[in-house]
Structures are given as C-alpha cells and as structure tokens.
Amino acid sequence: MATKTFKEIPNTLPVFDKKKGLEFGVYSLGEHLVNPHNNELLSAKERINQIKEMAILSEQAGVDVFMLGESHQDGFISQAHAVILGAIVEATNQIKISSGATIVSTSDPVRIYENFATLDLLSNGRIELVGGRASRIGLFKLLGYDLNNYEELFEEKFDLLLQLNQNEQINWEGKFRAALDDAKILPRPLNNHLPIWRAVGGGESSAVKAGNAAVPMNIAMLGGPVSIFKRSIDVYRSAAKMAGYDESLLPVATGGLFYIAKDTNTALREFYPHVNNGILKANGQGFPKQAFAHARDPKSVMNIGEVNQVIEKIIYQHEEFGHQRYMAQLDFGGVPFNKIMENIDILGNKVLPAVRKYTAKK
Known about the structure:
Helix content is 42%, strand content 16%. It contains eleven helices and twelve strands.
C-alpha cells in the first residue's frame, strides 16, 4: 500500500516535550472587577502588578505557559496587553508567554507582528500569539470599526498575520487595510517565526477554518460537558485531514475555569460569586447556579472542586481531547490574590506532578 503524502504543515508550530506530558498554563483575561465577597476593588496599578506577580509565581511553580488576553472596555485592565506582557518577559526567565487572545480584527497585523516579534527577542524566544475575534464587542465602536464586518475583518487580518509570519518581505492587498508593496516586516522573531494559534470559542465553523489552514487551535471552554468541545476538536482535525494535512501533528490547547479548595462544596461556594460577577459584567445576566453546579459532574469542563477531583477531570479531558495544552483561568471575576496564590501553589505541588505522570509519553 502506498504511503499517504501530506501537505507540508507551516513551520510555525509550537514545540512540545512529549516526555513531559500535557503542558499546563495559567491565563488571565485581565479583568478588573470588584471582589463580590467584600465589594473591594483594586486600583489599576495594583491589578496590573497582580497579573505580573501571577506570571512570576506560575514560573516558580513549574507552570509551562502564562497567557494574558486583550480587552477594551470597563471591567478590564489589559487594553495594552503587549505592554504588560513585556513587563512579564523581563520578570521571568523560562515560562512561555502568550497573548490569549490578541484581537486581530481591530488591530493592524503589521503592528501586532512588530510588537510580538520584539517581545520574542526580549524573551529569548518564549513568545506565542493567539489571534481572536473578540467575544466582547465594545472595542469595535471604540476603535472605529464596523461591527457588521465582524467576520470579514478577522479572516482577512488573521490571514495577513499568518503571511507576515511566513514572509519577511510581502506584497499584499485586501479590503480593510492599505496594500503592502514589497513591505519588509521587521524585526523578525528569534527563530524567524512565531507560534500563532487561532482562538476558537466552541463554534465548529471557526474550528473548520483553523483545520483548513493547519493552524494550532486554542479553544475556550466556559462550561458544559466534555462531549460538546470534543466535537469541535474532532471537526478541527477532520478539516485538517480533508485539506491534506497530517492532523496528528497539529496541536490543540484548551482553557477554562479552574479553582481548587479543601472540598467541592467549598470550591463551588467560594468561586461561584466570582464567576457570576464576571459573566454578569459581560452579558448582564450572570451565570445560572444550576449550570454552575454542573461542575460537580466528572465530565464537566469546569475544573472546580477538591484537588483529586480536579486531577481526575483534567486527565479525563486529556483522554477525550488528546490535546497538548490546558490553560487554567483561576482569577476570574475578582478572585482575591491570596486565593490565586493558593491555587498556583496547589497547581505546582499537587496537580502538575499527577497530570504529568499520567500523560507523559514513555
């Protein structure tokens, strides 16, 4: 039987140590919200420094990746996320640093690439970039973009970003940006390319596009059963295979709510007001308690509970998804810093050793 010939996958994929097992990360959306337990609000300076300290503690705990999102409305402090990532780069030495996500739709891909290539040089090659479309749409009006072009803006600009990553000099013409005529894009990253992921919110159409382009997929999981998100991951790999790529080489990262306490009841009681707080700010409706209680289910994507329960859920998710990275969102909705520190400590001392032991390739 003839050996199947695959299309060449772009040489921009992130590198994973299979002997180490599932990569683990900590990520923040950069929220700046009151603590619903006491209605206290940190100053902007305190919250930015807190995010920086989260990254430092994550590195000390042996976490593989730290990720910070971008947002441009009330309730967030990460409008200039690349600037904050620059401070984190200077304060750390080994941990990978990533955006999560950079809103490509309302930014110039050339400026994005210049910023992140510079960060990569400063970090000695530790930078990754996740390109997204924005689940919160206030920035379209703020930055002067037509929301009616939501999909078109992202697809055109994300494609240009990928082309910039592949080519130092480029000719390009599109609908939403001035043409590039033999434009030389500088500086180049340390290894000439950046790992660039596509952010997917669970919708299968976006997963298909990521697979068609052989781009690593970063999928956000707010809540629900594992089976829902497995469908999107399966669709992603199927699309890559149909497009002629070896889908087994394409990495998947998942991310979702993470909170550990002494027992499940305590974890749910402590964390729910924060999650409800964050969702209420986003959509004005909050997070239904019944839906949040689904975190008790071993097949829920919400990794909330006592430590052994969370470990078992993460391992189950890895068995179902076959993914390469999990990102824990543990500062959602104004979680106080002492609880963030506790969770990072538990993550490093108990969760990571158990998960790595199970998922590492011999």
